[in-house]
Design goal:
The protein contains one helix and nine strands. The protein is globular. The strands form two sheets. Strands 2, 3, 4, 7 and 8 form a five-stranded antiparallel sheet that branches. It starts with a helix and ends with a strand. By secondary structure, it is mostly beta strands. Keywords: Signal. Residues 1-21 form the signal peptide. This is Secreted protein. It comes from Streptomyces lincolnensis.
Length: 112
């Protein structure tokens, strides 16, 4: 019986453990280099693991706006929907990097 207990203990030690990193969440800040007012919203995985869309924000010409009170899963992409009066609505995927960012970070996206 002692041999079985020892084998079970050693077997447990030799078994590789499943790695699990804590999920990080962050806010998004968008900075514009445009001479026009930019309107934007985001769609992606939020801190609850749900696919969600944000409200709309505006960025003054050559300014920045933080999409506050919305938290997105870092290490994933969000749909970045934006509109300038001269170009109309467009969207593109933008990755919110987890590496090098702490939980609660603000990730800055740039638009021309």
């Amino acid at each position: 019986m002692g041999v079985l207990a020892a084998a079970a203990t050693l077997g447990g030690i030799a078994m590789p453990a499943t790695a699990s990193a804590a999920t990080k969440y962050g806010q998004v800040r968008v900075c514009s280099g445009s001479n026009e007012t930019v309107k934007f919203f985001l769609v992606g995985e939020n801190q609850h693991g749900d696919w969600a869309g944000s409200r709309f924000w505006e960025i003054a010409p050559h300014g920045c706006t933080t999409a506050s009170d919305y938290w997105w899963t870092l290490g994933r992409s969000v749909e970045f929907h934006h509109r300038k009066p001269s170009t109309g609505w467009r969207w593109e995927p933008r990755v919110l990097p987890a590496n090098g960012n702490k939980n609660g970070s603000t990730i800055t996206l740039h638009i021309g």
